[in-house]
Specification:
Elements (H helix, E strand, L loop, with lengths): L1 H14 L4 H7 L6 H9 L6 H11 L18 E2 L7 H25 L18 H14 L10 H7 L3 E5 L7 E6 L4 E7 L6 H16 L8 H16 L2 H8 L8 H11 L3 H10 L5 H13 L18 H11 L5 H8 L3 H7 L4
Protein name: Zn-dependent peptidase ImmA (M78 family)
GO molecular function, one term: DNA binding
Family: Belongs to the short-chain fatty acyl-CoA assimilation regulator (ScfR) family.
């Protein structure tokens, strides 16, 4: 019991980005750094009053500290890691572990068996744009997506048994991917702080999907691998034949309003769209450079003048949670624990007929 509390306490501390001293300060030094160190080493379990105080400061329920974690993350590689403070990296990892732990426990309660099948498992190693384009076409075919716009990518991933986790992280973090519990469950996490840029969320999710599904030539540099994953994301969002219908075979100029309308339909940024048009031979590299210079001059690189307005969120966890409540497989108290909410708040939101 001591070790379980110690592990969960450390996880909650990292989840919130606190050092031991920082946590002591946040608690008004009602618990010393030395005492917190003993908790984390498993030497002492605090009394109920201190556990309640810890719960409030760390934004978890008291039972969090005594619930076993059933998640073992595989290797993690995510973009811009070197630009993130170490504590932010820890927060990302612990948030992912915590969300998945509750998610997998809920599926276990409902007796849901999820088996992921990689639609590109037999696809050969990729090292060129054309190969990535072919892989994107194969994915759309295997998943029955046709050639039109894709609605709600997080929901699509969940339907295909890929866990999607929303993370509260530093703005330098876009997304990450890994495998859980012996490479049986794929998971992709993205930063909810880019939620106002839905086209960026869509692109990030598909970029991370490329890392999960593709066998990429190991001799390539990290930069080359990233570009291939970018190209895969663009190709899934907007297949070549569809792009040719929208833009034509060859263009010397493109209208911002024209690009904006395609963006609103397909959920791909104008910048990714022009890169895609260049890769497909519709516009040349000179025009592409001019376009990006214009975006820079107009200060549109981070905030494009036309927004994509869609729905990019999975509700599967909540759906399963309220199903378990309705079928009386869990109590309201257990539901609050799985949702990581205070009981009073959860009870006020749980309408069971």
């Amino acid at each position: 019991m001591n070790q379980l509390f110690a592990d969960r306490f450390k996880s909650a501390r990292l989840l919130n980005g606190y050092s031991l001293q920082g946590l002591a300060d946040a608690m008004g030094n009602k618990v010393s750094k030395q005492a917190l160190h003993k908790y984390e080493k498993g030497e002492v379990i605090p009394d109920s009053e201190k556990i309640s105080l810890l719960s409030d400061v760390l934004n978890v329920r008291p039972d969090y500290f005594f619930r076993e974690m059933k998640v073992e993350l595989g290797a993690i590689e995510y973009r811009k890691l070197k630009k993130m403070p170490a504590k932010e990296g820890h927060k990302v990892i612990e948030q992912t572990r915590e969300c998945l732990s509750r998610y997998l426990e809920l599926e276990e309660i409902l007796g849901i068996a999820q088996e992921f099948s990689n639609p590109l498992k037999d696809f050969p190693e990729v090292s060129t744009h054309d190969q990535v384009d072919e892989a994107a076409t194969r994915l759309r075919t295997e998943w029955g997506l046709g050639t039109g716009p894709i609605f709600n990518i997080p929901e699509l991933f969940e339907d295909k048994h890929i866990k999607v986790v929303e993370i509260d992280a530093d703005v330098s973090f876009d997304g990450m991917q890994t495998w859980v519990n012996g490479e049986t469950i794929p998971v992709i996490a993205y930063n909810k702080n880019i939620a106002n840029k839905l086209d960026r969320i869509r692109f990030t999710l598909l970029h991370e999907l490329a890392h999960l599904l593709l066998k990429i030539d190991k001799s390539l540099t990290d930069g080359q691998k990233e570009r291939l994953c970018h190209q895969f994301a663009g190709a899934v969002l907007l297949p070549k034949n569809t792009l040719l219908v929208e833009l034509g075979q060859r263009r010397s100029r493109l209208s911002i309003n024209e690009l904006g309308n395609i963006k609103k339909q397909y959920g791909i940024s104008m910048q990714a769209l022009v890169m895609r048009a260049n890769a497909c031979g519709i516009v040349n590299s000179h025009y592409t450079s001019q376009f990006f210079n214009l975006m820079k001059q107009m200060n549109w690189r981070k905030e494009e003048p036309i927004a994509y307005e869609g729905v990019e969120r999975s509700n599967r966890f909540d759906q399963l949670l309220y199903r378990a409540l309705a079928e009386e497989l869990i109590s309201v108290s257990k539901g609050a624990a799985l949702k990581n909410m205070k009981l009073s708040v959860f009870r006020s939101q749980s309408l069971i007929m």
